[in-house]
Amino acid sequence: DQRLSYSDYFLTSNGWAGATRAKEFPRPNRGTLMTRDTANYFNCRHVAETQETYLALPRKFNVAGVLVSATNYGELTHILIRAAMTHRRLIVGFAPVSVIVHALRDPCFRLKANVFDILCPDGQPVRWCLNHFYATGLNDRVCGTTSMLRLCESAAANHLSVFLFGSTEHTLHRLAKCLRTMYPSLEIAGMESPPFRELSFEE
């Protein structure tokens, strides 16, 4: 079943970063993916089981073959904070029009995108599609940069730490400085700039 083929793996834009369980699956193409062993992710409402509670994830809708979550900033931030408090691993992505077009052209990329726990409508045309075809009533898109800032603000208020991953060392240090200025109580647990190349087997 391809829907569960890459369960328990964590990939980055540079290739493999690690795996929670070593399974005999072929090495995927470059992309970002971390999923849990989950029930049918095509369900209208995802439910992620935790030790103490259940996390209801936003409903997904088919936009040109890509399963996009009908969500907003408030709901997304609440889910991510709750997931952190209950130690639930989630993978969240953001889908502007370019991602939808890429997924149309690349079935492997589309497969990976469709196993994200939440794929936000980052792009007004994507939001328009959700509203027009599925009457989701979304008032705004959900972009990655704004989501990060709202998440950091809420993390600081809830005494949760964040980890910065990606880009260059210089950019990471600048970002950390800005975040500490904006949210003085925010704890940055660490940061890492991945290699801008394919990872070695050892890595």
Quickly list its features.
203 residues, alpha/beta, 3-stranded antiparallel sheet, 6 helices, 33% helix, globular, disordered N terminus
Spell out the helices and strands N to C.
EEEEEEEHEHHEHHEHE
Unreliable segments (pLDDT under 50, ≥5 consecutive)?
Answer: 1-52
Q: What structural class do helix, strand and pairing data support? A: alpha/beta
- Tell me the number of strands: 11
Strand content: 15-25%
User: How large is the radius of gyration?
Assistant: 17 Å
- Report strand order across the widest sheet: 2-1-3
Count of discrete alpha- or pi-helical segments spanning 4 or more residues: 6
Shape: globular
Biggest sheet, in brief? 3 strands, antiparallel
Integer average pLDDT? 78
Distance between the termini: 28 Å
Q: Level of helix content?
A: 25-40%
Can you walk me through this structure?
- This protein is an alpha/beta fold and 203 residues long.
- Helices cover 33% and strands 22% of the residues.
- The protein is built from 6 helices and 11 strands.
- The strands form 5 sheets. It has a 3-stranded antiparallel sheet with strand order 2-1-3, with no helix packed on it.
- α1 crosses α5 (144-157).
- It is globular.
- The two termini are 28 Å apart.
- Mean pLDDT is 78; it is low at 1-52.
Summarize it:
The protein has 203 residues and is an alpha/beta fold. Helix content is 33%, strand content 22%.
